[in-house]
Structure to design on (502 residues):
């Protein structure tokens, strides 16, 4: 490999990882260690593991991960970490057959327009996983959001709310977010409140210290996080009380934050992005029926916007905890999560929305009372940067060339 | 599935729903007494107890959602397995 200060190393996987599980592996490798700069999955010639221990097993799978790492990395230790995640998160999963519940149709081809947008000055890479947007992305995001907001107001009488950005770490911990997604969590750091701390910190910086190191020595409590999505604010708001009337539908739009390591990419996967979220709280039958109806209205909207795509059963990127694999495959099995995916070019697509059912999990963890015990919840989140980006990949970066019907649909 | 086997299924489920009476056709996951991870335990238990593997298209909620559904699934699976190699599930 040509990267300065980097070496390439092959970590053998025995038994090989089945091909059906390759995506579960490839979405976790960068989270194994920040030392990994790049990786590739290497096919094996020998039969892969059969996760159930029964059946025929059989097909060739992934026999190794080829990693490019910083020079000086402890390779044995890195191999141990990779193999832990493979055994804990990946091999123990069972993968039901993919289940598509909707397919859209759309005219024409789809082409990645990120470079076009950059050329036009419509996107600006402010930092890793952080992108500033101007026209036409800015208005497009607002208009698409407007369509979703109007839809949920008309269809569900959703109440709009605006939340502060910060969310207490205690709220994130209460529902197990830290156990589920430690790799994504963004903590808000500050200095410990003490005049001597500030003075020492400034002296160290003036003497040329690295701000990260100085902060580590003088940090205050990690008592706030940046929210990974809006729904946690809603549960936090209704916590420890009976829900008035036993049901509610709340919508909010806000900045959301997930550390995506080297998976960050264009407007597809950001650390700092915008979500329009709808939370359904109430009796089980109602929140399930409303989730279904919301999905159907979202499919209608995709048709109206001429975007194509598909909606399918999906899972969350739980990571490295006891029971991680079981949680992913029970999500698939019980169809707790659906993703609406839109194409970006001939090969790639992106999830622009997810529709989740949590049973009583959040009702219980936040102590939100319903008509008969803790309330049931569903939520749907629309990633506005992703939705706008998929739209632009379909219809082009120049609004003057969008089909008249589509332009009208965007303007609602 | 024999009556005795069906009773085994009822007993296993009963242990996980705080001894609540669950009808044979009732959706286990709608009772509110099991969490989603119970689905995983149930799949593993069915495999172990009735010696039928659950793979690919078998891993469908419809096959495990009630006592009756589990009974029908195990019967179908046994029939397919008895039919010789290359079984397929419905």
């Amino acid at each position: 490999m040509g990267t300065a200060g980097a070496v390439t190393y092959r970590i053998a996987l025995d038994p090989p990882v089945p091909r059906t599980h390759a995506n579960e592996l490839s979405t976790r490798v960068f989270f194994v260690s920040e030392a990994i700069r790049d990786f590739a999955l290497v096919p094996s010639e020998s039969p892969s593991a059969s996760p159930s221990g029964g059946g025929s097993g059989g097909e060739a799978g992934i026999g190794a991960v080829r990693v490019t790492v910083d020079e000086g990395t402890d390779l044995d230790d890195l191999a141990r970490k990779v193999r832990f995640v493979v055994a804990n998160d990946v091999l123990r999963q069972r993968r039901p057959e993919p289940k598509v519940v909707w397919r859209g149709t759309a005219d024409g081809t789809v082409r990645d327009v990120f470079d076009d947008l950059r050329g036009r000055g419509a996107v600006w890479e402010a930092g890793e996983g952080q992108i500033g947007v101007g026209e036409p992305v800015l208005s497009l995001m607002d208009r698409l959001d407007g369509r979703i907001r109007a839809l949920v107001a008309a269809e569900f009488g959703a109440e709009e709310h605006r939340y502060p950005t910060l969310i207490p770490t205690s709220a994130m911990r209460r529902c197990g977010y830290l156990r589920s997604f430690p790799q994504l969590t963004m903590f808000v750091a500050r200095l410990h409140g003490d005049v001597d701390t500030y003075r020492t910190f400034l002296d160290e910086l003036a003497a040329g210290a690295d701000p990260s190191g100085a902060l580590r020595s003088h940090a205050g409590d990690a008592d706030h996080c940046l929210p990974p999505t809006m729904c946690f604010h809603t549960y936090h708001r209704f916590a420890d009380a009976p829900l008035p009337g036993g049901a509610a539908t709340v919508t909010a739009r806000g900045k959301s934050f997930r550390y995506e390591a080297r998976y960050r990419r264009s407007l597809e996967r950001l650390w700092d992005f915008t979500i329009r979220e709808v939370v359904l709280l109430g009796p089980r039958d109602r929140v399930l029926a409303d989730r279904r109806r919301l999905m159907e209205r979202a499919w209608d909207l995709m048709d109206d916007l001429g975007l194509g795509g598909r909606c399918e059963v999906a899972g969350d990127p739980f990571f490295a905890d006891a029971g991680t694999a079981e949680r992913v495959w029970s999500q698939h099995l019980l169809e707790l999560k659906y993703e609406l995916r839109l194409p970006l070019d001939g090969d790639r697509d992106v999830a622009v929305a997810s529709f989740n059912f949590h049973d009583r999990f959040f009702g219980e963890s936040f102590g939100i009372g319903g008509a008969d015990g803790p309330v049931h919840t569903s939520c749907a989140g629309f990633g506005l940067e992703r939705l706008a980006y998929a739209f632009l990949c379909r219809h082009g970066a120049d609004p003057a060339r969008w089909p008249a019907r589509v332009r009208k649909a965007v303007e609602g | 599935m024999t009556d005795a086997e069906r009773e085994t299924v009822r007993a296993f489920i009963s242990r996980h729903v705080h001894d609540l009476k669950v009808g044979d056709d009732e959706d286990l996951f709608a009772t509110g007494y099991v969490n989603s991870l119970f689905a995983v335990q149930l799949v593993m238990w069915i495999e172990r107890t009735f010696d039928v593997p659950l793979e690919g298209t078998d891993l469908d909620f419809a096959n495990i959602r009630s006592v009756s559904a589990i009974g029908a699934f195990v019967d179908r699976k046994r029939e397919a397995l008895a039919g010789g190699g290359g079984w397929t599930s419905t």
In short: The helical segments of chain B are 3-16, 37-50, 67-82. Chain B touches chain A at residues 29-30, 32, 35-37, 39-40, 43, 47, 53-57, 59-61, 64 (CB under 8 Å). Residues 67-82 of chain B form the longest helix (16 residues). The mean pLDDT of chain B is 86.
